[in-house]
């Protein structure tokens, strides 16, 4: 049987898989990036145990990726960063997806079980910011 921490991490993986594979290929332009960010975050936040999602689609990367006269490109992991906070049975998991060595890497930032840090590189002090956009190295 999985522990609550393992289940919370599994839930985070499900959310990332849903977000990435549901929205990859969506047409995006610098002018539509904000609405796409909101749609992605709100869609994933509907899922069980998901407390917060922050999606950042980088306008400069989108503009650089537009390679035809129609003014848009297809959304890929290289165009966005994502942070999530998942809570399951008293365990809070913070995650992020960002480019690393040319690949959109999804990773655990912090796992907190009952107020005790279980893993990750985030500040585990009681007053640490637990929002998905908190700097994990603060």
Description:
Substrate binds at residues 11, 106. It catalyses: 7,8-dihydroneopterin = 6-hydroxymethyl-7,8-dihydropterin + glycolaldehyde. Homotetramer. It holds the Pfam family DHNA. Residues 3-108 form the Dihydroneopterin aldolase MtpD C-terminal domain. This protein is α+β, with helices and mostly antiparallel strands. The chain has one domain: 7,8-dihydroneopterin aldolase (MptD) (Pantoate--beta-alanine Ligase, Chain: A,domain 2, 2-Layer Sandwich). 29% of the residues lie in helices and 34% in strands. The protein contains 3 helices and 7 strands, in the order αβαβαβββββ. It has a 5-stranded antiparallel β-sheet with strand order 2-4-5-6-7. It has a two-stranded antiparallel sheet with strand order 1-3. Helix 1 (4-23) runs antiparallel to helix 2. It starts with a helix and ends in an 18-residue tail after the last strand. The relative contact order is 0.18. Mean pLDDT is 87; it is low at 118-128.
């Amino acid at each position: 049987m999985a522990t609550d921490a393992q289940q919370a991490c599994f839930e985070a993986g499900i959310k990332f898989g849903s977000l990435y594979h549901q929205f990859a290929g969506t047409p995006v332009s610098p002018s539509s990036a904000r609405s796409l960010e909101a749609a992605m975050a709100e869609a994933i936040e509907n899922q069980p145990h998901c407390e917060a999602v922050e999606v950042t689609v980088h306008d400069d990367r989108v503009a650089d990726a537009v390679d035809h006269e129609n003014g848009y490109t297809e959304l890929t992991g290289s165009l966005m960063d994502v942070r999530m906070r998942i809570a399951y049975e008293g365990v809070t998991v913070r995650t992020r997806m960002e480019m690393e060595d040319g690949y959109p890497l999804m990773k655990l930032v912090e796992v907190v079980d009952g107020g005790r840090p279980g893993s990750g590189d985030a500040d585990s002090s009681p007053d640490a910011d637990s929002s998905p956009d908190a700097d994990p190295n603060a």
